């Protein structure tokens, strides 16, 4: 994007506080918008439809779940906008928890987030890349063409290439974010346009007998679905089983929207955060919600409904069934790029979280260093959490006094101006993500990430409600208008945290025994 850069030029002005040089905020709301969209429109829009549809009695209910998930995410995003502007602390959830509950909560969150949640989330993206390519190479008759370990190998290669690009330069990472955002929006738009084309052809008298569900079957009436290989007849299902399936469907929908909280990680890189952060979040959530809804309507139009329930690569299947194997391979490439963009955006944000955790003493100090560790050991630690200025805490370029000069006074080796990124933090992410790719699968990692993430989201937004009453005088440049919004989010996220498969199963068995 041409209007902003996350890296600070060597000769850019800096603001001093506590004897530390802190680069001025350089990120516009448009840049933040691109990063937020890049994170959210990832594997979820292409892989979650199967989980949502198989846990809903009809397409109209499934689409309603997509809307509900978006509204819940929007409520959380608004709450995080208030937290980000009233606390003005880099580090996101970690710093909010520290301020509200103390160091113990922040330290716990930092360790879980850095070493488990974010690497697992990126591993899911990598696994979807491998599976999409596998379905793209599928001949349509013999299942996935690539073996599971081959697909894991693809995921590992993609993951580590992105890490290396981020290690070299945050300038490169921002350019990648822009490119990934454009390509993933193109992929989503292609699916939506494909649905419109099929509808127009149908209105013109062209019928596709192999894909007639969308105009011959009811979008409202309960039906029979397949969920993880089990037949579900919604017309005879007990009411508590409905709740169990709805919970799973909402969970899958929320996964597709995940990433909205990441703007708070880079809040102090945004110029005029009081007005720009809410603007970025609201614009991003509007765009993402419409994308999710239109794309999922198109899935129901483009492919047979039973196929939606049985494939985690519905976009690739839609391309193959309507345009052939070449289109399937192209769509697989676009889906892979989309997931790679999500990995890119996540690495960027979690690197900054790691820096904040190291500066607070939750992690070894070396985790917060910028550049090659043994060449930057003399640099002072940069405060990322205990200052209230609106300047960026992100360590981006070498500061002027640390740039080596040649005898003629010019800057030294130009390569020294690269690798000015949180190398240790990103190395940790690359290593942990690779481990999760090797040992995990899509469904296991999805459950693990969801349980962990929503527990901390629950605590963070509950903290907003606590602050409203504990510190009513706290300056809030942006304030959620109705306190009911964060309260609804807290209640819903609490249900999600306790609504794991194990808990749901025990409750269902108990209710079944009572009914006998």
TrEMBL record:
UniProt superkingdom: Eukaryota
Gene3D superfamilies: Amino acid/polyamine transporter I (1.20.1740.10)
Subcellular localization: Membrane
Pfam families listed in its UniProt record: AA_permease_2 (PF13520)
Disordered: annotated segments: 381-415
Membrane topology: Multi-pass membrane protein
GO cellular component: membrane
Transmembrane regions: 27-48, 60-84, 149-167, 179-200, 280-303, 323-343, 423-442, 448-468, 480-499
Single Gene Ontology MF annotation: L-amino acid transmembrane transporter activity
Principal subcellular localisation of the protein: membrane
Compositional bias (Basic and acidic residues): 387-405
Record's keyword terms, sorted: Membrane, Transmembrane, Transmembrane helix
PANTHER family hit by this protein: AMINO ACID TRANSPORTER, AMINO ACID TRANSPORTER (EUROFUNG)
Name this polypeptide is given: Amino acid transporter
């Amino acid at each position: 994007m041409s209007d902003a850069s996350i890296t600070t030029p060597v000769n850019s002005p800096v603001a001093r506080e506590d004897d530390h040089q802190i680069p001025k905020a350089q990120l516009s709301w448009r840049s933040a918008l691109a990063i937020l969209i890049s994170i959210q429109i990832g594997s979820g829009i292409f892989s979650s439809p199967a989980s949502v549809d198989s846990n809903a009695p009809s397409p109209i209910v499934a689409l309603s779940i997509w809307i509900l998930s978006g509204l819940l995410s929007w409520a959380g995003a608004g709450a995080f906008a208030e937290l980000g502007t009233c606390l003005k602390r880099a580090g996101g959830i970690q710093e909010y928890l520290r301020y509200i509950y103390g160091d113990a909560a922040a330290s716990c969150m930092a360790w879980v987030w850095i070493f488990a949640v974010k690497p697992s989330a990126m591993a899911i993206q990598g696994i979807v890349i491998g599976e999409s390519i596998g379905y793209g190479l599928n001949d349509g008759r013999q299942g996935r063409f690539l073996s599971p370990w081959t697909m894991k190998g693809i995921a590992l290669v993609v993951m580590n290439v992105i890490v290396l690009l981020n290690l070299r330069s945050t300038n490169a990472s921002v350019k990648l974010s822009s490119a990934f955002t454009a390509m993933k929006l193109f992929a989503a738009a292609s699916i939506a346009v494909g649905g419109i084309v099929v509808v127009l052809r149908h209105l013109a008298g062209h019928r596709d007998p192999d894909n007639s569900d969308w105009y011959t079957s009811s979008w409202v009436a309960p039906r029979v679905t397949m969920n993880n290989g089990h037949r579900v007849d919604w017309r005879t299902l007990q009411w508590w089983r409905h709740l169990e399936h709805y919970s799973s469907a909402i969970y899958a929908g929320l996964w597709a929207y995940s990433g909205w909280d990441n703007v708070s990680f880079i809040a102090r890189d945004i110029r005029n955060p009081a007005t720009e952060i809410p603007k970025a979040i609201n614009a991003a959530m509007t765009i993402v919600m419409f994308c999710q809804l239109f794309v999922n309507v198109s899935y129901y139009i483009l492919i047979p409904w039973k196929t939606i329930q049985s494939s985690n690569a519905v976009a690739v299947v839609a391309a193959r069934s309507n345009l052939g194997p070449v289109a399937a391979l192209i769509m697989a490439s676009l889906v892979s790029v989309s997931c790679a963009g999500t990995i890119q955006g996540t690495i960027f944000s979690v690197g900054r979280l790691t820096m904040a955790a190291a500066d607070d003493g939750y992690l070894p100090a070396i985790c917060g260093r910028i550049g090659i560790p043994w060449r930057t050991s003399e640099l002072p630690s940069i405060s990322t959490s205990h200052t209230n200025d609106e300047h960026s805490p992100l360590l981006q370029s070498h500061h002027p006094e640390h740039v080596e000069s040649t005898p003629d006074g010019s800057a030294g080796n130009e390569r020294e101006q690269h690798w000015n990124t949180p190398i240790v933090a990103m190395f940790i992410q690359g290593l942990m993500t690779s481990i999760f790719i090797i040992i995990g699968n899509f469904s296991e990692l999805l459950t693990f990430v969801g349980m962990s993430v929503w527990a901390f989201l629950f605590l963070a937004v509950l903290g907003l409600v606590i602050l409203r009453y504990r510190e009513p005088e706290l300056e809030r440049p942006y304030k959620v208008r109705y306190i009911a919004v964060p309260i609804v989010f807290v209640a819903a996220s609490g249900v999600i945290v306790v609504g794991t498969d194990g808990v749901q199963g025990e409750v269902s068995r108990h209710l079944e025994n009572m009914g006998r």
